[in-house]
Amino acid sequence: MSATPRTQAPCGAWTSPITAAVVAAGATPLSGVALDGDDVYWLAGRASEGGRNTLLRQRSEGTIEELTPAPFNVRTRVHEYGGGALLAAGGTVWFSNFADNRLYRIDNDGEPVAVGAGGALRYADFVPDAARGRLITVREDHSSGATYPVNTICALAFDGSETVLVDGNDFYSSPRLSPDGRQLAWLSWDHPRMPWQGTELWLADVLDDGTLVDGRLVAGGADESICQPEWSPEGLLHFVSDRSGWWNLYRFEQGVVHALCPREAEFGGPHWVFGNAMYGFASNGDIVCTYIEQGVSRLARLAGGTLTAIDTPYQEIRELRVQGDTVALLGGAPTIAAEIARIDLAGGTREVLARSIEQLPDLGYLSVPQSIAYPSMNGRTAYAFYYPPQNKDVAPLPGELPPLMVIGHGGPTSMATSTLKLATQFWTSRGIAVLDVNYGGSTGFGRAYRDLLREQWGVVDVEDCVAGARHLADQGLVDRERLVIRGGSAGGLTTLCALALFDVFKAGASYYGVSDLKGLDADSHKFESRYNEYLIAPKARADAVYAARSPINHTDKLARPMIFFQGLDDKVVPPPQSEVMVDALRARGVPVAYLTLEGEGHGFRKADSIVRTLEAELYFYLRVFGIPVPSTLPAVEIENLAA
How far is CA 323 from CA 306, 345, 377, 401, 463, in A? Predict the structure, then answer.
């Protein structure tokens, strides 16, 4: 039987079953993977319930139950980005509730019971100290009324009383208690460093009364990033360090640090959120780990310095948890949306427990990305995933090349991955190619690549996005006259700079993007308040460089249409960052659209917000490029478009 011939239609106007509503309803954010005995826990986002996170558990017999019905929202705002909001240990579950910042405890399938003060006190990254009747946690105290909160490591007793164990540093993470309860390890760092620049790993003895003594520095410093300290079952401290130029695994034993698997690969990642894990210990003492090479994750067993692959279909692996012979993880691949899986190491079996997308579109509508490396400026090589348009029902008009959407990820030390995302397929199934760029500064390619962004934010990232668009146009794969760029947060700065400083892109979309670097410093929360000293310039040179890099100072060079999206509750990149840019473009007569969203912060969680923004962005591009607009697509006001 011959295949049904495809109809021809202008690129961008292809009919697709991957609607904005499908994107919003079909993708459930999954996170917070935890193991406790035979039970697996995880968090699932509920876009239809205001974006709240609910805690789910699968018992060993296979039943799945919800432990935190509405209005509970399992989320913490420590460092604003949160993470590490739950702990499951010994049949008891602890979690942070977003609305009141309180910790709650669930015992023996009972109802959640509040513990601790909450309110101005926020908690994250808990570990149990059952013998002393307490949790050890990172605490962020906003009660003083000072400009920035005070961060400590504290002990929270099961009766709600609190004792500060470690203080004096600007930031803490990853408190980890040894199996015998007699030693505590933790990470700390101070301004102006971010944790992926330099952290310190400390170790102290724990007395019977719970106090700490003999604190000593184990590893790390101003130019060494340590992450994920963990204790082996035998009581040996392990950690990940980038001292070799790559985040590799190490063991601390009798005062000596031993490299376990030197390799040009990343066994760790940047600490944007608490609770990251990329390795753990199996029942026989082997290390089960995931590592990243050239932007692709692999799962392996490490024993005696030898890595042995563990077969999985995943190319992105996060939140790896290991207990006994059980592995739980969050994984994805080009045709696999993010999913929670349990792997039995002894039997070699894999069971999918939860999928972020239960009903995948037909493969005929899915674009499988190509991992590409291409030349950028000043002799650099940049990396990206290229998604060609794909729709089994529709083909381009004769001789037509597709528009290209270039995406600069946020972070800016984040990493574009190849995991199936309906938000990307929304564009490719309509005939718009996508280039998801891992510009210089991205994770997954070693410290030297990450440090390419040192004092070069708004330069290297922009150049790599521009070079990627030119590369595909030169290859004859995309239409040079219909190149667009979009980005959120740090990627929004990339977008704005690319449009202001290069005449390559013909339109752009900024999602809560940074336009005024000096204003960002003034409005920023504690975690990122000194980040620009690394990304832009030290304070002594900051004013001049800020002025040169801030898009708001280059609006006279902007002549391309733009659409802006902004959450009105955003504390990371506040609304004035978008508003000043919109006002400037409006005054200059440049086509501009601006959509604000009430109740949304840094990143949009609500289903109606996701639908509204995707449809508005599509409408904007269709109007700008003169592509027929479907009658079902809601109109958006675009000022100055006639001009």
Answer: 21, 10, 46, 51, 44
Residue pair 492/510 in contact (Cβ under 8 Å)? The answer is yes
- Helices 490-501 & 460-474 angle (0-180, nearest 10): 60
- Is residue 520's pLDDT more than 80? no
**Predicted structure pTM score:** 0.91
Query: Residues 15, 434: contact at Cβ < 8 Å?
Result: no
Residues 6+ apart with CB under 8 A from 59: 38, 39, 65
305-343 pLDDT, tens digit per residue, is 999 999 999 999 999 999 999 999 999 999 999 999 999
- Per-residue pLDDT averaged across 591-611, rounded? 90
At position 258, the amino acid (one-letter code) is H
Dig out the tokens for 522 from the structure: 């003034």
**Tens-place pLDDT, residues 82-99:** 999 999 999 999 999 999
Write the burial class of residue 360 (CB in 10 Å: 0-12 exposed, 13-18 middle, 19+ buried): middle
Q: What is the pLDDT of residues 247-282, one digit of tens each?
A: 999 999 999 999 999 999 999 999 999 999 999 999
Q: For 585-613, b where at least 16 C-beta lie within 10 A, e where not — what string? A: beeeebbbbbbebeebbbbbbbbebbbbb
* Beta pairing, strands 86-89 & 92-96: antiparallel
* Domains annotated on the chain, with CATH: 282-360 (no CATH), 366-625 (3.40.50.1820)
Q: 3-state class of 422 per DSSP?
A: helix
Angstrom distances, CA of residue 513 to CA of 485, 489, 559, 582: 12, 4, 18, 12
Confidence class for position 1, pLDDT limits 50, 70, 90: very low
Tokens standing for 604?
């949009």
